[in-house]
Amino acid sequence: MTAILQAKPVVQALKEKIQEEVKGLKDKGITPTMGIIRVGQRPDDVYYENSIIKNCQSVGIEAKVYAVPETISMEEFVRLINQANRDSDIHGILIFRPFPAHLDEDIVKHLIDPEKDIDCMNPVNLEKVFEGETEGLVPCTPAAVIETLKYYGYPLQGANVAVIGRSLVVGKPLAMMFLKENSTVTICHSRTKNMPDITKQADIVVAAIGKAKAIDEKYFTEKSVVIDVGINDAGDGKICGDVDYEGVINKVAAITPVPGGVGTVTTTILLKHVLIACKKQTR
Description:
Strand content: 15-25%
Low-confidence stretches: none
CATH superfamily of the largest domain: NAD(P)-binding Rossmann-like Domain
Mean pLDDT: 97
Number of helices: 10
Order of helices and strands: EHEHEHEHHHEHEHEEEEHEH
Helix content: 40-55%
């Protein structure tokens, strides 16, 4: 029988710990605060913003929204980011993407203060992960993968791990984070030969390629622990992962569902990062 690694208990455990630490800071007169920068009125951005604010409120974190029109100039946008960087009451900054075409993300990502960069947008924070510093503001999705595995008690030290995908957003930083946990990691990608032979040897397989249901049962054994990072359009109005969930269920040891898996934990990691940033800035 396959164990379904639901996000809900992972999120609950994380939130309880965050809530306790936030209370401790508030007792000292410090209120952890997230600054959300949104450009325009994209419905999905507004929905995401409301969801994050609700999550912040659930653990006692304040949220301040900087909503600006889509027509904002690059000069004005830079000024806004610098304002948030300088504001000592803002401990973590989250900037919604994608940007309108006239706003240069390559410039923006270098402007955000690394100590407030809760979404790991600034390359400085990514570099720290590759230098072995994984306790700070790391990429949220890889952090959610590690949190999920630890919550459900899967030992990472000595584990053989196959990461399918080599993006700078998930695959590569996640591999570094597994190495920090003393796992043995193989990164697989579109040019990997005989990939199923590699993934079948792994204790843990992480799918992070961004292709709907591309990874099927031939990649796993009945002992595989499968972490599905993908969020894709299933073509029927629903979303699905990179793994063919229906095809592998009851043929692997454990699997994260989509939705209701890693993606759900990722939002809570943002809250944890606000707390980490706040404690560092106010100590």
